[in-house]
Amino acid sequence: MNKEDIIHFFDRMAPQWDAEMIRSDEIIGKILDGAGIAPGVDVLDVACGTGVLFPDYLARQVGSVTAVDIAPEMVKIAAAKYPGENITVLCADVEELSGEKQFDCIMVYNAFPHFPDPEKLIATLSGMLRPGGTLTVAHGMSRAQIDHRHEGAASKVSRGLIHEDELAAMFQKHLTVTVKISDQRMYQVTGKK
Questions:
Q1: Measured between alpha carbons, how far is residue 3 from residues 70, 140, 179 in Å?
Q2: Which residues pair with 129 in a beta bridge?
Q3: Distance from CA of residue 176 to its chain's centroid?
Q4: pLDDT by residue (tens digit) across 46-104?
Q5: pLDDT class of 156 with cuts at 50, 70, 90
Q6: Fewer CB within 10 A of the terminal residue: the chain, N end or C end?
């Protein structure tokens, strides 16, 4: 996968992203529960897209959200959604972010197949967690549904969603796995530092 192709693809998709989103509040609630999204936590939303989880974070009264996406058009939409809230939206490659800030919860929601090097991503994000913090990779669909959705136009900017056992093994190099779910409705691996 080429980073420029990924940026171009998601910039093209940004205007219709929210209208075409498939969402289950019940599944998102379960994912956020397992991820430890609770009042007062500082969240890093990786590949935030148009900010689809922002209202969920706000409803849970998180302390702050730092949202990062590589596609400028996605960032533009996300940044305009909740002005005045404690949400900072950055246009950047999360793997190239530097800084001392650490987070209580890091969320990679509906984005993991678009990262070319999963092991590097997990290692990088694990290093951005506070002690006791959680890293979550989740999708509001099954692995089969995600893979089917990425056939066609998205095939050049994604890879198959890896088996949850393989992802859990990557997590275990850095974190203690606390959630591992892959069923007909959702996919989630969460690890705690």
A1: 9, 24, 30
A2: 103
A3: 19
A4: 999 999 999 999 999 999 999 999 999 999 999 999 988 999 999 999 998 877 789 99
A5: low
A6: N
Residue pair 186/140 in contact (Cβ under 8 Å)? The answer is: yes
Could you give the CA distance from residue 57 to residue 148 in angstroms, rounded to a whole number?
28
The pair of three-digit structure tokens given for residue 68, joined into one six-digit string: 């990062």
Write down the residue that tokens 């950047």 correspond to.
92
> At residue 124, what are phi and psi to the nearest 5 degrees?
-60, -50
- Report d(CA 58, CA 64) in Å as an integer: 9
The answer to whether residues 186 and 139 touch, using CB atoms and an 8 Å cutoff, is: yes
pLDDT digits (tens, 9 = 90+) for 53-66: 999 999 999 999 99
* Predicted structure pTM score: 0.93
Tokens of 174: 């850095």
Angle 52-53-57 (CA atoms, 0-180°, nearest 5)? 150
